[in-house]
């Protein structure tokens, strides 16, 4: 019993958070609509009781007028019920919109509120987030307010009917409620087994089935699936997985069907006892036609106390989800902590901070990692081991190393996306995970701009895709245009049908998808906008994989020139592309293997020099590795890794 009550409490909190006034109005309407049918039943009984007198003495007689008054009250009761229903439908629609927003805000803020990604990697959190998201995507949540209102109205009406029936015999409502309770418990048990099976036994399989179905219908997956001829296999795999998941639910329900039968039999028996008593006392002349009508309607009315149907199931699901959503927000910590790198989330409030323009230039950030170790949650071995690195403000550093050396992990730690397992990461002396939610800098642009390998491709306009680097510059077309130009994407603006307003995704009116290289330019432009907006540290983590090495070199050089006053970290495995950085850091096995300026490292003949020569010598018929190092990406070619 505690769990349903806790869940109901969670939904009540969500209602309250969503809109207090609307909640109060709905509560009032719920009570009125619950009382109305009982008042109508009493008026009906009185009308039936007054009919013989009215027939005997005529409609103009006092008895006739009394009958007509009762009839008018019955009609009024029906009318009030109808109007109340229409009104509550309207309020419920409004409430659902507010609830959707409250739920999204609760879960969204909770997810964003995590200063780092550690807890988001927790499988239980992922499962809860997926469940809430699935609920939001389903039609169910659009019926939540209506279902809650309906269920509470039913229960109010049932309670009122029980009170009326108690005036016939105190035990009558008790017997009926007992009958309904047995049925209720039996049905609840049957339902719960189904839900438990979904959540605990087949939740993973259902998510997998959902993922497989997504692969079948999602546009981005369509290319590979068609080329590899996977559609048939995927279709079968989806059906098999879904059936296997549902079989668990069906089995749970089949094996518990006996409880439904027993519950129904108990309910029939209890009704039989009360109806028999009513008939008996009517037969003895103790009850008139009016009283029989009222009590008969009350017997039916008490059913509202225990009736199980779609509203109850929907409310059960909504309350459970509300609990999950609140649990999530409690577990994930206090919202909202602004992420410390990358473009700020679109939902962040408008900023009041005056952005630093390019004229003054953003103050470059000092990066300092002291004795940093890091292990991914659930992974036994550390990926970064006791690493020390100081990057003075304004320096440009290339981080190089073999696949899996820990380059991306290092950038994530610098961004504060994960807390180090040991040691400390400081940007200008501050923890990059520190929240910026208080004080006048609330919503200020991040001090770190980053473009990851798997940067975000927002299904939004070109303007948003570029401008989200710094919200204050979102509508500054000049700044956005310059950033796009500097990222080499000016032609995009002229080629796209609606210019800045073109949605960068198919499936929207006039929407256009971009090529991989074009997307990279957009992402780079976004980072440049962030730098204009005040980011003093720019990290490019191989976002240039789609470019050949010459284009990558040109781009890096252009970026280094553009961001001369910004601390810059470039991650790449093509050493020729980063010849013009101030400093090279070679990572190997999560540690700094070599550190120095490119010329010194090359002259020293160590690991970096070997890597550089290997990449160059592989194409010995050419003299400049920059001309050819892109071929190093070919199968079998050295990756430029420290162990190459
Ligand atoms: N989210 C994660 N969870 C668990 N392990 C991870 C995660 N991300 C990376 N790793 C592991 O950490 C190690 C370092 O990965 P990282 O991506 O930092 O290497 P990298 O040097 O950037 O490699 P590449 O050049 O291939 O991009 C790898 O062994 C990888 O499998």
Automatic annotation (TrEMBL):
Subcellular localization(s) per the UniProt record: Cell membrane
Chain segments annotated as coiled-coil in the UniProt record: none
Topology in membrane: Multi-pass membrane protein
Nucleotide-binding keyword on record: yes
One GO location term (cellular component): plasma membrane
Keywords, sorted A to Z: ATP-binding, Membrane, Nucleotide-binding, Transmembrane, Transmembrane helix
Domain ABC transporter, residue spans: 367-614
Pfam families reported for this sequence: ABC_tran (PF00005)
Key word Transmembrane helix present: yes
PROSITE patterns: ABC_TRANSPORTER_1 (PS00211), ABC_TRANSPORTER_2 (PS50893)
Biased composition range(s): Basic and acidic residues: 624-633
InterPro entries to which the protein is assigned, alphabetical: AAA+_ATPase, ABC1_TM_sf, ABC_transporter-like_ATP-bd, ABC_transporter-like_CS, P-loop_NTPase, Type_1_exporter
Disordered, as annotated region: 624-644
Residues that span the membrane, as ranges: 69-92, 159-182, 257-279, 291-309
GO MF, any single term: ATP hydrolysis activity
Name the UniProt record assigns to this protein: ATP-binding cassette subfamily B protein
């Amino acid at each position: 019993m505690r769990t349903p009550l806790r869940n109901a409490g969670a939904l009540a909190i969500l209602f309250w958070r969503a809109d207090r006034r609307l909640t109060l109005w709905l509560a009032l309407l719920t009570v009125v609509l619950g009382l109305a049918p009982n008042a109508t039943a009493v008026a009906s009984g009185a009308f039936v009781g007054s009919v013989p007198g009215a027939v005997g003495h005529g409609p103009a007689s006092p008895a006739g007028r009394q009958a007509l008054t009762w009839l008018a009250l019955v009609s009024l009761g029906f009318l009030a019920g109808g109007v109340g229903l229409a009104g509550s439908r309207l309020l419920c629609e409004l409430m659902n919109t507010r609830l959707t927003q409250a739920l999204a805000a609760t879960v969204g803020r909770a997810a964003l509120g995590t200063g780092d990604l550690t807890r988001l990697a927790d499988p239980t959190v992922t499962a809860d987030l997926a469940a809430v998201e699935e609920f939001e995507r389903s039609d169910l949540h659009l019926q939540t307010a209506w279902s809650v209102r309906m269920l509470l109205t039913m229960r109010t009406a049932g309670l009122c009917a029980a009170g009326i029936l108690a005036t016939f015999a105190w035990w009558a409502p008790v017997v009926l409620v007992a009958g309904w309770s047995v049925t209720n418990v039996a049905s609840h048990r049957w339902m719960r087994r189904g839900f438990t099976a979904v959540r605990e036994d087949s939740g993973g399989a259902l998510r997998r089935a959902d993922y497989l179905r997504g692969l079948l219908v999602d546009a981005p997956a369509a290319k590979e699936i068609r080329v590899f001829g996977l559609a048939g296999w995927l279709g079968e795999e989806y059906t098999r997985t879904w059936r296997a998941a549902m079989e668990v639910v069906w089995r749970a329900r089949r094996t518990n069907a006996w409880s439904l039968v027993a519950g129904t039999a108990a309910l029939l028996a209890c009704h039989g006892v009360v109806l028999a008593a009513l008939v008996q006392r009517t037969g003895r002349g103790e009850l008139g036609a009016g009283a029989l009508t009222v009590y008969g309607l009350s017997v039916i009315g008490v059913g509202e106390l225990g009736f199980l149907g779609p509203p109850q199931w929907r409310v059960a699901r909504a309350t459970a989800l509300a609990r999950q959503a609140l649990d999530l927000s409690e577990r994930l910590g206090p919202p909202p902590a602004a992420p410390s790198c990358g473009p700020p989330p679109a939902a962040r409030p408008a900023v009041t901070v005056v952005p630093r323009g390019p004229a003054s230039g953003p103050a470059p950030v000092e990066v300092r990692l002291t004795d940093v170790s890091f292990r991914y949650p659930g992974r036994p071995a550390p990926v970064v081991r006791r690493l020390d690195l100081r990057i003075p403000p304004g320096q440009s550093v290339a981080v190089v190393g073999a696949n899996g050396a820990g380059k991306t992990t290092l950038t994530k730690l610098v961004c504060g996306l994960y807390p180090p397992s040991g040691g400390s990461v400081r940007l200008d002396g501050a923890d990059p995970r520190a929240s910026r939610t208080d004080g006048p800098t609330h919503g200020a642009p991040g001090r770190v701009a980053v473009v990851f390998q798997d940067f975000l491709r927002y299904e939004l306009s070109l303007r948003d895709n570029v401008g989200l680097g710094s919200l204050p510059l979102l509508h500054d077309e000049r700044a956005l245009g310059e950033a796009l130009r500097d990222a080499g994407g000016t032609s995009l603006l002229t080629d796209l049908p609606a210019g800045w307003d073109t949605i960068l995704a198919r499936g929207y009116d006039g929407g256009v998808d971009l090529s991989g290289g074009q997307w990279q330019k957009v992402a780079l432009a976004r980072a440049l906008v962030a730098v204009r907006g005040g980011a003093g540290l720019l990290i490019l983590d191989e976002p240039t994989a789609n470019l050949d090495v010459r284009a990558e070199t040109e781009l890096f050089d252009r970026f280094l020139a553009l961001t001369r006053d910004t601390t810059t970290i470039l991650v790449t495995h093509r050493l020729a592309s980063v010849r013009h950085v101030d400093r090279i850091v070679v990572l190997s096995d999560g540690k700094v293997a070599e550190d120095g300026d490119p010329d010194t490292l090359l002259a020293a003949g160590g690991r970096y020099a070997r890597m550089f020569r290997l990449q160059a010598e592989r194409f010995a018929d050419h003299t400049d590795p920059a001309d050819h190092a892109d071929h190093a990406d070919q199968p079998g070619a050295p990756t430029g890794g420290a162990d190459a």
